[in-house]
Amino acid sequence: MYFIGIDSGTQSTKALIATGETGEILSTASHATPLIENLPPGHKEQHPEDWWEALRIALKAALQKSGINPEDVRGIGVSGQQHGFVPLDKEGRVIRPAKIWCDTSTSRQCEEILERVGGLARCIELIGNGVPAGFTASKILWLKENEPENYARLHTVLLPHDFLNFRLTGERKMEWGDASGTSLMDVRTRTWRGELIDAVDPALIEKLPPLIPSHEPVGHILPEIAEEFGFSKDVIVSAGGGDNMMGAIGTGNVRSGIVTASLGTSGTIYACSDTPVIDPHGEIAAFCDSTGKWLPLLCVMNVTVSTEMVRTLFNMDFAALDAAVEKTPPGADGLLLIPYFEGERTPNVPDGTGVWFGVNSRTHDSAHYARAAMEGASMTMNYGLNRLRELGINPQEIRLTGGGSKSAVWRQILADIFNTEVVAMAHAEGAAYGGALQARWAFARSTGEHITLEEIAEAWVKADEKTRTAPHRKNVSIYRKLQKLHDRLSKALRPVFKSHRRLIDKI
Q1: Residue 243 among the catalytic residues
Q2: What's the Cα-to-Cα distance from 128 to each of 84, 225, 277, 498, rounded to whole Å?
Q3: 84: number of CA atoms within 13 Å, CB side?
Q4: Would you tell me how many other CB atoms lie within 10 Å of the CB of residue 425?
Q5: pLDDT tens digits for range 65-76
Q6: Among the options 162, 243, 279, 322, which is catalytic?
């Protein structure tokens, strides 16, 4: 028997096929999913139908490469980028493009919602989270206020992975983990919270789908989908989850004491907890995971965004980027990057921009910019990691996933800045692999097989020990001082960012 993991991300959709006995990955394939171009600053949107088309193309390619008989597939698990707002009408048609996780155009709506529920502290009391830019609730209010004709057609609110589940099964449902990133669900009770819903629209409760637990399948694939791919009609589609929740499963982060860092377009650090971890400051997201536990998480919006900008600016390939970083000393001779190119979530700076600090004749070259880009993204992540530590999460090692984890020099920078051993995983596709693991678990439960998700992860998930990297004591000392400066600079710039946004909006 075989299981399929799907990961629908910002840049592409990936499909992965694994065996149900050992978890061996037989094949992977991907297909690009573009952003809509020429939108105003802060607006980030994609067409949900592009995700569906990319899924179909990637899945067909993965099946062909694997050489398996599709009739032997038993389950599919879907991971998707979190927080995106997919508005469906009564017939299940997409009303308009989805505002996705990195859209910061709804910061005013975030402020409105917080004001209506009594402020940030009251909001955290109600749902365990605040309403940062990027979460789904503010996107719904934005639609109501800016496109009332489209809002009038709204029948169902779905998240990106829920939409793909809907296209596979015809079922409109939402799973606990991904739903906890909407700012509409109380993460402690895993139920919709009326005060937050009313702050958007009292009628919104009728447009929210039923919530299901992580172990419960969404349903079986539609007959026409089975026919298209050659599956049997009893293939289950598991609950799926957000990319961070599924990345946690795919890196074996399904029990307390494990911490994962994902280095993609955005960056996340998260841990598994048996109880909710609520940050009274609202900087750490108090998410549920996709296993029935909780996933305290920090998210930064600009990780490989930073290095990709440098690569493009200086026409570097990945090898050249790493070589440039390696020949530059830790701290880049004082060149610091505040990498808030797309705004930022942790810290919550939706009006932020990128700032290069310390530019002079010594630091104004490609090598210094390259090192400062890696360090700036890493220190922004470490800002959140330090907050996690204050809340009681103290990692002994951090498991790395995502494109940035492939770089040996970046792994060393992370180990030095985090002051913790880091190790990459034996497989690169954490979220897609998590989808396959969750599908295997859901299938086992549906057939009465006595195996837990922890047992599946223990057997399937492996670290690549060749990549294990320990911190260098001298570099740790350098970065501890730079981290304080980076944090001070970020804090000092926040009112400037807000004034800058107001000025640009008037021009």
Answers
A1: yes
A2: 20, 38, 8, 26
A3: 31
A4: 23
A5: 999 999 999 999
A6: 243
Quick one: tokens of 192?
């919709």
CA separation for the pair 104, 244 (Å, rounded): 19
The letter for the amino acid at 504 is: I
* Beta-sheet pairing, 397-401 with 259-263: parallel
Task: Judge if 2-248+430-460 and 300-422+472-506 fold alike in CATH terms.
Answer: yes
The encoded tokens of residue 435 equal 């989808």
Segment 429-477, tens digit of pLDDT: 789 999 999 999 999 999 999 899 999 999 999 999 999 999 999 999 9
Side-chain half-sphere of 208: how many Cα atoms within 13 Å?
Answer: 26
d(CA 369, CA 426): 30
Which residue type occupies 279?
D
What residues contact 303, with CB distance under 8 A and at least 6 apart?
A: 263, 264, 265, 266, 267, 339, 377, 381, 402, 404
Mean pLDDT of 27-43: 94
Question: How far apart (Å, rounded) are the C-alpha atoms in residues 209 and 37?
Answer: 30
Query: pTM of this prediction?
Result: 0.88
* End-to-end Cα, the chain, rounded Å: 60
The number of helix segments (H) and strand segments (E) in the chain equals 17, 23
CA separation (Å) from 454 to 9, 178, 272?
A: 25, 20, 12
Distance CA 198, CA 202 (A): 4
Three-state SS annotation for 225-267: HHHHHCCCCCCEECCCEEHHHHHHHHCCCCCCCCEEEEECCCE
The pLDDT of residue 133 is 82
Give the CATH fold of the 300-422+472-506 domain.
Answer: Nucleotidyltransferase; domain 5 (3.30.420)
User: Rounded to whole angstroms, how far apart are CA atoms 388 and 284?
Assistant: 7
> What is the domain partition of the chain in residue ranges?
2-248+430-460, 300-422+472-506
How many CB atoms sit inside 10 A of residue 202's CB? 10
AA letter at 132 = P
Residue-wise pLDDT tens digits, 45-54: 999 999 999 9
| CATH 3.30.420.40 correct for 2-248+430-460 | yes
φ, ψ at 191 (rounded to 5°): -135, 155
